[in-house]
Amino acid sequence: MEIKADEISALIKAQIKEYDHKVESKDVGTVITVGDGIALVYGLDQAMLGELLVFPDDVYGMVLNLEEDHVGAVLLGNDRGIKEGDMVKRTGRVVEVPVGDGLLGRVVNALGQPIDGLGEIKATKHRPIERIAPGVMKRKSVDTPLQTGITVIDAMIPIGRGQRELIIGDRQTGKTAIAIDTILNQKGKNCLCVYVAIGQKNSSVALIVEKLRVHGALSYTTVVSATASELAPLQYIAPYAGVTMAEEWMEQGKDVLIVYDDLSKHAVAYRTLSLLLKRSPGREAYPGDVFYLHSRLLERACKLAPEYGGGSITALPIVETQAGDISAYIPTNVISITDGQIFLMTELFNAGQRPAVDSGFSVSRVGSAAQIKAMKQVSGSLKIDLASYQELLAFSQFGSDLDESTKNVLHHGSILMEVLKQKQYVNHSVEQQIIELFAAKHRFLEKLDLAKVRPCLEELYQYMEAKHQDILKQIREEKVISQEMDRSLKDIMNDFMTSYLSTHE
Q: Do residues 355 and 150 lie in contact, with contact meaning Cβ atoms separated by under 8 Å?
């Protein structure tokens, strides 16, 4: 074959013409050691804290330690395919999750990927999971109630939109039940919900999702799940992913409720990572920055001022105690960050008082500002009456001779305890709560046996709904009990109780 010089030169010229000169610079490191979901990487001098790294087999990692000669990364996937000497690439991006309305009604993992089998999430926007909380000037004081539908909480430990209220107690005392009931009660109240499950059993999360679906609450709820079977890094980032999704809605001017269930397991996951990264252990082997871990998370819940959209995030973190010890490290940390706590007591739970809320230890530091006036009118003396009852109950166990006034206080207290009993998934509207507490406050229930208190109240409310809709409507709209309404309610309850006692003797 004859080689033609002019053809070769023409071909070379064409190739030179088409040559696109691009210099691509990649920041690449090598794995020094890997194991237990932790990798030490050499050569990534420019890496940022929280940055995503790409390991072999498309496994992602997140930078958590910035050392002088290497970086420590936690792996967000399986480390079986990664070995010493493997190449690691920087992405230049921090960990992000999808946000927006496409997440409503979905169950996702800590990275925002769907795990409910309902296909891909249509998200147009992503946000980094770490973000500085809104400053003082962007915030507004809490002034709108977030109704839980649970009488004992709405009456004595009210929660306002934009508040952080801790739910604390031993295991199996009904902490998650309160959080789920609160989510169910937001139906039709223009409040979106995010439920973050950290370190729970897969079966427990599936049960909660099913409950939300059955009660029609899943349509306005996103479930972020990082179960006990998942890696510690995913459990660590789950609550940050949840609050990032909530922030998107808050900035659109919407109200959001977020539940962290629970932060004790979150702290344990972080402790695991910290110890593996060889950070210095402190009290109870937790690292020194475990307070900052929760404070930067919970500070992101707030009520924004109207000029910034006026949205809010209400946070309900859950913390588990051991044998009621609220002076342990994580409980004291979270108590000091939040605006009050709902304390659940094992003894009350075992005695059949459910929800097992201890009115003495429980407190809301801002909620009363958000309470409607009608609720303040009927619940003003409730906490004092219960405190007197608890005190006298302790003394009455020592002696049998009690004077009449002591007997009255004890009887009234025991009736109040019955009034505050409530079944799970049975939420009470504000009007129902006010009617029941009004009846208890003005001693209309004193002649009843304890077993008949709850059935009587149910009948009373049905009677009000059937015959006195106008009063319920007035309570709902005006949010105050006028003198005229006070008289009307007393007359109605007198008549009702007379007929009830005569028919139920």
A: yes
Q: For the segment 429-467, what is each residue's pLDDT rounded down to a tens digit?
A: 999 999 999 999 999 999 999 999 999 999 999 999 999
**How many angstroms separate the CA atoms of 47 and 45, rounded?**
6
Closest CA to 370 of 120, 148, 81: 148
The CB density around residue 453, as the number of other CB atoms within 10 Å, is 21
Q: How many residues does the chain have?
A: 505
pLDDT in tens, 332-391: 999 999 999 999 999 999 999 999 999 989 999 998 888 999 999 999 889 999 999 988
Residue 404, burial from CB neighbour count under 10 angstroms (0-12, 13-18, 19+): exposed
Task: Answer for the pair 416, 353: CB distance below 8 angstroms, yes or no.
Answer: no
> How are the residues of the chain apportioned to helix, strand and coil, as percentages rounded to the nearest 5?
45, 20, 35
Q: Which residue in this structure is represented by tokens 């999704």?
A: 245
Q: How far is CA 463 from CA 200, 220, 296, 500, in A?
A: 43, 32, 49, 11
Structure tokens at 459: 């009948």
Q: Output the 3-class SS for 294-347.
A: HHHHHCCCCEECHHHCCCEEEEEEEEECCCCCCCCHHHHHHHHHCCEEEEECHH
**Structural element, H or E, at residue 477:** helix 469-478
Tokens for 464, please give them.
Answer: 């009000």
Residue 8 scores a pLDDT above 80:
no
Residues facing 245 on adjacent strands: none
Q: Which is nearest to 179 in space by CA: 258, 92, 242?
A: 258
Could you tell me the end-to-end alpha-carbon distance of the chain, in angstroms, rounded to an integer?
119
- Which positions are catalytic? 365
Question: In angstroms, what CA-CA distances link 430 with 2, 46, 137, 141, 467?
Answer: 97, 56, 32, 22, 18
Determine if the peptide bond prior to 56 is cis (ω within 30°). Answer: no
* Residue 296 near residue 133, CB atoms below 8 Å: yes
Residue in 191, 163, 435 with CA at minimum distance from that of residue 299: 163
Residue that is written with structure tokens 């050392």 in the block = 67
The amino acid present at 256, given as its one-letter code, is V
Residue 295's region, left for phi above 0, alpha for psi from -120 to 50, else beta, is alpha
- Cα torsion at 57, 49, 316, 475 (round to 10°)? -110
**Position of tokens 């003797």?**
505
